[in-house]
Amino acid sequence: MTQQFETVALIGIGLIGSSIARDIRHKGLAGKIIVSTRSQATLTRAQELGLGDLYTTSSAEAVKDADLVIVSVPVGASGSVAAEIAAHLKPGAIVTDVGSTKASVIAQMKPHLPDSVHFIPGHPIAGTEYSGPDAGFIGLFQGRWCILTPPPGTDEAAKAKLRMFWEALGSMVDEMDPEHHDKVLAIVSHLPHIIAYNIVGTADDLETVTESEVIKYSASGFRDFTRLAASDPTMWRDVCLHNKEAILEMLARFSEDLAYLQRAIRWGDGEKLFDLFTRTRTIRRSIVQAGQDTDMADFGRHAMDQKT
Amino acid sequence: MTQQFETVALIGIGLIGSSIARDIRHKGLAGKIIVSTRSQATLTRAQELGLGDLYTTSSAEAVKDADLVIVSVPVGASGSVAAEIAAHLKPGAIVTDVGSTKASVIAQMKPHLPDSVHFIPGHPIAGTEYSGPDAGFIGLFQGRWCILTPPPGTDEAAKAKLRMFWEALGSMVDEMDPEHHDKVLAIVSHLPHIIAYNIVGTADDLETVTESEVIKYSASGFRDFTRLAASDPTMWRDVCLHNKEAILEMLARFSEDLAYLQRAIRWGDGEKLFDLFTRTRTIRRSIVQAGQDTDMADFGRHAMDQKT
Ligand SMILES: NC(=O)c1ccc[n+]([C@@H]2O[C@H](COP(=O)([O-])OP(=O)(O)OC[C@H]3O[C@@H](n4cnc5c(N)ncnc54)[C@H](OP(=O)(O)O)[C@@H]3O)[C@@H](O)[C@H]2O)c1
Ligand SMILES: NC(=O)c1ccc[n+]([C@@H]2O[C@H](COP(=O)([O-])OP(=O)(O)OC[C@H]3O[C@@H](n4cnc5c(N)ncnc54)[C@H](OP(=O)(O)O)[C@@H]3O)[C@@H](O)[C@H]2O)c1
């Protein structure tokens, strides 16, 4: 592919930042990749992995020649990163992020950023339960959606460039306003993670069932939840703190529906149970048809077992 | 491997029954496999797949020469199957099942069965979200646990034979009393499925988020739940109806814990959130170490994507 930016600065080089770095390199999308992260340890590791061309722990230093700046840090750290880089941004640069919440990130970053740059917040809908620079890989964003939440009046040319960048990474790009993004993500991502953390916590606390039993028999369903519940605690703490309203709304709906289901179980209402259990199959089929999941039994885990 | 039984009768030939049939054939564990299912359509399909040596829609007919009878039907149908076969069982035969609940299956089957047979209920902790004879495969039980819940006074030799059979299928075998089984499975299997069905239902009902959005962005967590929520409605209705007490107990614990978590989110208590989100990672690690799940990112789905 052809180069899209002269210089890209990556602030934060964990799972997401390092996957972007690998894709940029792999596809030749930038002339130069500048890697920046707050800790020397992570920076050294990024260097060992050869993720960039220049390395620095100073985000101010990192952005000064960059045409595209991508901030990939926990959402609670967006404000301080924006404050650090603001005075050093090159006029005309595009500044974006990958944070899992959008209204809060905008509220934190926008006040700091000069009018001379194009601030276009984003969120790639792709990830895994692992974090850090070693967790990234080429192709993470392939076939996945990326949501941009550009403020009203955003420069069309800048937006088109950022779109093209994500498309080069294999993504489809959508636009929506940040409040709607936060509501959508509350149900498709934040609630599933919170529920997973919760049920793993419940299992861990039981007196009548031992931890060893939970582990041995986890293949009957439980193990699926433990994957989400192994995700990075800092990232998910920040998501919960920064998308509170939407998450609480979805939690209330979920609990209401669960009470209804619980009642059907208590009163032995097989028909109600059968109806819900039938209705939910349709969504799974649509997700597989849309190419957003494999149709292999058990996510293809069995095929993986055979290989190892 | 060497033959363990002269004649095995399989009553029910869906995911579980047909996987057992394939393993028996593959490993030469029986001289003859008799396949029985209530519908002609499923029986014909089983015959096309070559799952057995003899085929019949009469379970009474199927069991008359069998040394091992394995009942693999929804738990709500255990009683009627037991009533059908009882008078035709060969003295000394071992009768077992694979139902996901145990106290209820025993209550339904035991009264019908003659003292001349060995009734040893069982439950292999393995499965997928698919059902029917096409869904089964060789190796489903490999590396997974199988729980037996033999009544007090069960013949030791018969128990040892059944154990050896599951071990030949690659399983590790545990024994416990049916009430404990039902409690353990309520948390490791039944609650995860109910929660998954529930959240998919909640998402489906929202007015503010469209179904198309839920599908497009499902890779951010939601899709994991849709797999469990695509499981067979009849099977899961029966599980809910037949393990009511234990499920309601676990649901109450789960809801209590969720209220606590909700409160932490409402009050912005980052420390409480961080603590829970850290504690839950340990269980995941133990499950992977115990060989009960892959440690590949995203269950290795990405590797699957690459292959297709
Ligand atoms: N993980 C996912 O599945 C996923 C998916 C989509 C979007 N996201 C979003 O992507 C962003 C990054 O997630 P990730 O999974 O890549 O995280 P990660 O692997 O944990 O990496 C985090 C990066 O941010 C830096 N960082 C952490 N705390 C910081 C702070 N207080 N100030 C400045 N830098 C800090 C880390 O630096 P050091 O290592 O040097 O401390 C590291 O470079 C988050 O906003 C997350 O919401 C994640
Ligand atoms: N699926 C899992 O992951 C899993 C795991 C462990 C244990 N189990 C347990 O294994 C058992 C079978 O599950 P499965 O997944 O193999 O189911 P399945 O694929 O849906 O097959 C069900 C079998 O039972 C027969 N059947 C259905 N309703 C019946 C009725 N009312 N009376 C008599 N026969 C009936 C079906 O016959 P027709 O097709 O001819 O109607 C078919 O042969 C269940 O008790 C389940 O709890 C399941």
From TrEMBL, chains A, B:
Catalyzed chemical reaction(s): prephenate + NAD(+) = 3-(4-hydroxyphenyl)pyruvate + CO2 + NADH
Domain Prephenate/arogenate dehydrogenase: from-to ranges: 6-295
Gene3D superfamilies reported for this sequence: 6-phosphogluconate dehydrogenase C-terminal like domain, NAD(P)-binding Rossmann-like Domain
SUPFAM superfamilies the UniProt entry points to: 6-phosphogluconate dehydrogenase C-terminal domain-like, NAD(P)-binding Rossmann-fold domains
PANTHER family from the UniProt entry: PREPHENATE DEHYDROGENASE (PTHR21363), PREPHENATE DEHYDROGENASE [NADP(+)] (PTHR21363:SF0)
Recorded GO MF terms: NAD+ binding; prephenate dehydrogenase (NAD+) activity; prephenate dehydrogenase (NADP+) activity
Keyword terms, alphabetized: Amino-acid biosynthesis, Aromatic amino acid biosynthesis, NAD, Oxidoreductase, Tyrosine biosynthesis
Protein name as it appears in the record: prephenate dehydrogenase
NAD in keyword set: yes
Pathway: Amino-acid biosynthesis; L-tyrosine biosynthesis; (4-hydroxyphenyl)pyruvate from prephenate (NAD(+) route): step 1/1
Family indicated by similarity: Belongs to the prephenate/arogenate dehydrogenase family.
InterPro entries, alphabetized: 6-PGluconate_DH-like_C_sf (IPR008927), NAD(P)-bd_dom_sf (IPR036291), PDH_C (IPR046825), PDH_N (IPR046826), Preph/Arog_dehydrog (IPR050812), Prephen_DH (IPR003099)
GO biological process, one term: tyrosine biosynthetic process
Keyword Cell inner membrane: no
Enzyme class, UniProt record, top EC level: oxidoreductase
Pfam families per UniProt: PDH_C, PDH_N
The EC number(s) this enzyme carries: 1.3.1.12
